[in-house]
Amino acid sequence: MEIDSHFRFDPSSNRHHDRGLQKVLDRLSQTIERDALVRQTTNQLRELLQVDRVVLYYFYGKWSGQVTFESLSDRELSILGSTGPDDCFNNEYADMYLAGRVRAIADIELEPIQPCHRDFLRNLQVRANLVVPVLIPRGLWGLLIAHHCQAPRSWLASDIELMQQKAQNIATASCILGS
């Protein structure tokens, strides 16, 4: 067996590898923290508001996104992965949410909304919904949405304030801002 006499162990040669590994670990830690925060928030909101479903609709691209988290009163109400109505969420709506719009609909059957929006909500078994933007310095990160499926519901000012507070908590969390 021949040993290469030119090879010398250099512990500093692992620094680049260690930095890369540390970045991966930091990113993983941040993702776990973010997921725990959003899961806890959606669960708290569903319980406090006494609604059937609370979801986070996350924007992964320019006005493109999907439901990435949900808290449900019944598993049959799951819409996880739903991407929303293709033609209904356009730049006009995105700009309104980017400006901080909160949308509370007590009864989708009586609210003057676009037919495609009403049909979309019906398909999700929604009767009343409350939508609050999650705004970070870079823009619209997501929408925090409460769905009441059983019957119409008049949303109280305290319901809206609670949703806004929780959206703000998400938006200012270091695990969100750093991602």
TrEMBL record:
SUPFAM superfamilies: GAF domain-like
Residue ranges constituting the Phytochrome chromophore attachment site domain according to the UniProt record: 33-169
Coiled-coil ranges from the UniProt annotation: none
InterPro entries listed in its UniProt record: GAF (IPR003018), GAF-like_dom_sf (IPR029016), Phyto_chromo_attachment (IPR016132)
Protein known as: GAF domain-containing protein
Source species of the chain: Hassallia byssoidea VB512170
